[in-house]
Amino acid sequence: xxxxxxxxxxxxxxxxxxxxxxxTLVQAILALRCNIEYIASxxxxxxxxxxxxxxxxxxxxxxxxxxxQLKDDHPNSHYLQLRVDILVKMISEMxxxxxxxxxxETFILSPINPAFENPPSRERGxxxx
Length: 129
Description:
The protein has one domain (3-109).
């Protein structure tokens, strides 16, 4: 799913409390997106893109960890769980193939493991409709 589609899905969630809990994370992800779009611009050399992308990767990882923490801190908030799942997908959209260049590079940023999205140890049967 594309980043803009995920952002639209996120904005459709009508729950102010979960929106406030995710506000800082959302702002960080959107700021990262702007930086990644700039880095991926054709004016940048492949080496410059690679170096700048590497500097952003730890920030993406921190966003991912913040999402995990929010889910752990609020396990009974369905809307928060849904919002964080969407945000994790947004992070993944920025990680893989986002900065690929014409020089046969598949991706510059390493993919982030989204394994915490649906942990097997947590009961989530109520999410099925």
